Amino acid sequence: MVRPATPEDTGALRLFHPHGETTELTARLATPVSGTTHYVAELAGEPVAAFSLTELGRIRPGAAPRVLLHDMKIRARFRGHGVTEDIFGWLSESLGAGRRVELIALTPPEYRPSAMARFGLVESHHAFKWAVSEDVRR
């Protein structure tokens, strides 16, 4: 089962993001950033994965909506048990990803889950990040 995360999920989400304090995470779940929703995937009531979806704007008239899948984390003991496939199935069925909605999945360069290819995702973008640094002399 996939559902939006709530402030009550802060403890469960610490399984996926164990560092830092929880006040910011609880506040983020209580008042989400516009266009971003955090989700929890559960199996028999136990959190097995977490991920976020952010709506991306489109300037091209008539283009399909575009969403960014990011921060996907699967608990180690559930990796290789079809959780990724379940999440992609939910994205396809619930959001229309791949039919009505264009989905961009952000992953580290060395990580290419086989479920992506099985669901028809193809490499299309190269992502670059401007990391936060103490050195502001760029």
What does this structure look like?
With 138 residues, the protein is α+β, with helices and mostly antiparallel strands. Helices cover 22% and strands 25% of the residues. It has helices spanning 10-13, 22-30, 83-95, 114-118, and strands spanning 2-4, 36-43, 46-56, 66-74, 102-105. It is globular.
Key words describing this protein structure:
138 residues; alpha+beta; 4 helices; 22% helix; globular
Q: How much helical structure, as a percent, in the residues?
A: 10-25%
Output the structural class: alpha+beta
> How many strand segments?
5
Mean pLDDT across every amino acid position: 86
> What general outline do the C-alpha atoms trace?
globular
Sheet with the most strands: spatial strand order: 1-2-3-4-5
**Helix and strand pattern:** EHHEEEHEH
What is the alpha-carbon Rg in Å?
Answer: 16 Å
Sheet with the most strands, sense and barrel status? 5 strands, mixed
Number of helices: 4
Identify low-pLDDT runs.
none
Quote the distance from N terminus to C terminus.
Answer: 45 Å
Percent range for β-strand residues = 25-35%
